[in-house]
């Protein structure tokens, strides 16, 4: 293919700012390639609610655009403005609808510590140097989608409930993704659950063992309770290679893992299904506390775009260039506020300027 169509979902908060930095970087890249990308913007989250009179945070028109694209780049959704909306009219519901409707059951969240950012982490250099973890998070099941759910009145008081539930087939397919991912990495998987207490985790563990024994006999599989895993990630993160876990545990542990890298603003992700385009999205949210101030770190989204080039467009070489350009910017000492340390001798830049620095680095790489 020499022309790809990419649906852009800028969403809310810092979303539009990091999206324009990311599109700038991709355009800088493709100005040097024989192939091109055509971008088309679509609505999701609060932006979609505003456009549909609070009806739908992921309208069918957006779903259609996503389905026919070669790939999808999503920034982030959510904000104070919609926080008191009923559940069905919340930005988050649109994001979950997108993941579910598009069958994106696997979310790959790499937490790789870059030497340039060792000082940006709150942890000691000797603890984080060399850390390279891949969190494989199940994305379309668990307590996020389980029924029954709701808030009812029982015996004169309100009771809120959700259901943590996994079908065997759902566990099997995410375990397979983890197996495939781990075979290309260190060959080591830690399955994180809470099988000492939860039946759903008991099944998770049994099925994971079965998949690895039958399909990935070379994988070194271990098991860890999620509470211990949260602690071990901070105590000795180098023990982890690939982590496979359910939707909610993966959500929490990946945010935790971002602090090994130095900032949530550095963590990319790929959401993929068994067929069709994937969605490439930073792990962070819409950062309403800094939205509109040109303070956001666009690198998580730019690194997500690199994952898109590699996984969906089959452009691994150009993905490498994008990642190298990000590292060059860090080498040159450009820092957004979230990764700036007092006395680090680096230069504080805004979102826009960081985008321009990445573009300049791409030019150097492609020259
Ligand atoms: P958040 O990730 O938006 O922000 C947490 C903290 O990290 C904030 O201090 C923020 O300023 C900072 N931060 C996040 N991304 C950054 C970046 N790129 N550069 C610099 N700093 C960054 O999480 P939150 O505050 O708990 O949630 C805010 C909203 O985002 C909520 O509506 C939530 O539902 C939504 N959310 C959306 C997604 C998503 O779109 N995938 C993910 C998480 C949260
Ligand atoms: C994420 C977010 C979402 C999640 C929310 C906004 C629905 O936290 O992408 O990590 O919990 O999956
Ligand atoms: Mn999250």
UniProtKB/TrEMBL annotation:
Pathway: Amino-acid biosynthesis; L-leucine biosynthesis; L-leucine from 3-methyl-2-oxobutanoate: step 3/4. Residues 5-358 form the Isopropylmalate dehydrogenase-like domain. It holds the Pfam family Iso_dh. The keyword Signal applies. It is found in: Cytoplasm. Keywords: Amino-acid biosynthesis, Branched-chain amino acid biosynthesis, Cytoplasm, Leucine biosynthesis, Magnesium, Metal-binding, NAD, Oxidoreductase, Signal. It comes from the Eukaryota. Its EC number is 1.1.1.85. It catalyses: (2R,3S)-3-isopropylmalate + NAD(+) = 4-methyl-2-oxopentanoate + CO2 + NADH. One of its GO terms (molecular function) is magnesium ion binding. SMART domains: Iso_dh. One of its GO terms (biological process) is L-leucine biosynthetic process. Its cofactor is Mn(2+); Mg(2+). Binds 1 Mg(2+) or Mn(2+) ion per subunit. GO terms for cellular component: cytosol. Belongs to the isocitrate and isopropylmalate dehydrogenases family. LeuB type 1 subfamily. Homodimer. Catalyzes the oxidation of 3-carboxy-2-hydroxy-4-methylpentanoate (3-isopropylmalate) to 3-carboxy-4-methyl-2-oxopentanoate. The product decarboxylates to 4-methyl-2 oxopentanoate. This is 3-isopropylmalate dehydrogenase. It comes from Triparma retinervis. The lineage of its organism: Eukaryota, Sar, Stramenopiles, Ochrophyta, Bolidophyceae.
């Amino acid at each position: 293919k020499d022309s790809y169509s990419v649906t852009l979902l800028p969403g809310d908060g810092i979303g539009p700012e990091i999206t324009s930095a990311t599109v700038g970087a991709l355009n800088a890249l493709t100005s040097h390639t024989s192939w091109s990308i055509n971008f088309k913007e679509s609505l999701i989250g609060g932006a979609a609610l505003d456009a549909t009179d609070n009806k739908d945070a992921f309208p069918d028109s957006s779903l259609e655009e996503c389905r026919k694209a070669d790939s999808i780049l999503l920034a982030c959704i959510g904000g104070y403005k919609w926080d008191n909306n009923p559940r069905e009219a919340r930005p988050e519901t649109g994001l979950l609808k997108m993941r579910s409707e598009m069958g994106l059951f696997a979310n790959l969240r790499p937490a790789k510590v870059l030497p340039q950012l060792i000082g940006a982490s709150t942890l000691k250099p000797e603890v984080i140097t060399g850390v390279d973890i891949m969190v494989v998070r199940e994305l379309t099941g668990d307590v996020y989608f389980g029924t029954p759910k709701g808030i009812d009145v029982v015996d004169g008081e309100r009771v809120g409930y959700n259901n943590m539930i996994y079908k065997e087939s759902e566990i099997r397919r995410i375990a397979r993704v983890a197996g495939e991912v781990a075979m290309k990495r260190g060959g080591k998987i830690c399955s994180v659950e809470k099988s000492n207490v939860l039946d759903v985790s008991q099944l998770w563990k049994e099925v994971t063992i079965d998949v690895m024994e039958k399909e990935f006999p070379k994988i070194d599989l271990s098991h860890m309770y999620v509470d211990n895993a949260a602690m071990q990630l901070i105590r000795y993160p180098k023990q982890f290679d690939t982590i496979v876990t359910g939707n909610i545990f993966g959500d929490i542990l990946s945010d935790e893992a971002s602090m090994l890298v130095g900032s949530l603003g550095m963590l990319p992700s790929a959401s993929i299904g068994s067929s069709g385009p994937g969605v490439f999205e930073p792990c962070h949210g819409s950062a309403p506390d800094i939205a509109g101030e040109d303070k956001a770190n666009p690198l998580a989204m730019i690194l997500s775009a690199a994952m898109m080039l590699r996984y969906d467009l089959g452009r691994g070489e150009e993905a490498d260039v994008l990642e190298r350009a990000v590292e060059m910017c860090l080498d040159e000492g450009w820092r957004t506020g979230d990764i700036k340390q007092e006395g680090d001798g680096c230069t504080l830049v805004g979102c826009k300027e960081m985008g321009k620095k990445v573009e300049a680095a791409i030019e150097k790489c492609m020259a």
